[in-house]
Structures are given as structure tokens and as C-alpha cells.
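Researcher: Sequence recovery benchmark, item below. Answer with residues only.
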């Protein structure tokens, strides 16, 4: 059985921006031992955040697009059929 993992948007963004960071290492390990699960909601949030102008000084648009493309290719797209509302911040329910 393949192990499945879900990462918070902040972890993915940190992995994109800082190649020597713990989030980067975590993502790379998971890509070797399992698969990252991505729903449309999670991917759209990652995309929206990384494309914010405040990150332009760290990473080019071309590199952002490549990272997003690679993330999609190396992840398993899922379509959750049940909504869970247990988080204090309702925006985080998508991770459950």
C-alpha cells in the first residue's frame, strides 16, 4: 500500500522558496516513500499564494509555474466527497 500525505499550503510554499529547509526535505522524502494528495481547493490555494507579488523577489514566474507543474505531476489528485468542519479556522477544513 502506498502511503498518502497531505501538506498544508505553508509547508509547500516554504519548500518552494527554501531548498535547504525542513519543509523542502519533508516534501522530497514523501515524494520518495509515498504520494502527496492534492484536492483542487488545496492546489488552487497553493497556486494563489505562490503567485502573490511578494514572492517575486525570491522566485521567478517561470520557476513558480515549473514548481506548480512538478507538484501536480508528482501528486495524486483527489476529489473529496465529504466535508468536515472541525477546524477552528474554517479555511483549514479542506485538509481534513
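Model:
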Amino acid at each position: 500500500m502506498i502511503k498518502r500525505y497531505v501538506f498544508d499550503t505553508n509547508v509547500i510554499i516554504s519548500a518552494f522558496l527554501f531548498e535547504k529547509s525542513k519543509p523542502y526535505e519533508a516534501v522530497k522524502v514523501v515524494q520518495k516513500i509515498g504520494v502527496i494528495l492534492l484536492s483542487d481547493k488545496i492546489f488552487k490555494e497553493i497556486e494563489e499564494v505562490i503567485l502573490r507579488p511578494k514572492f517575486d523577489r525570491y522566485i521567478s514566474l517561470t520557476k513558480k509555474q515549473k514548481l506548480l507543474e512538478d507538484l501536480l505531476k508528482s501528486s495524486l489528485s483527489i476529489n473529496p466527497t465529504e466535508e468536515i468542519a472541525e477546524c477552528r479556522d474554517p479555511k483549514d477544513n479542506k485538509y481534513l
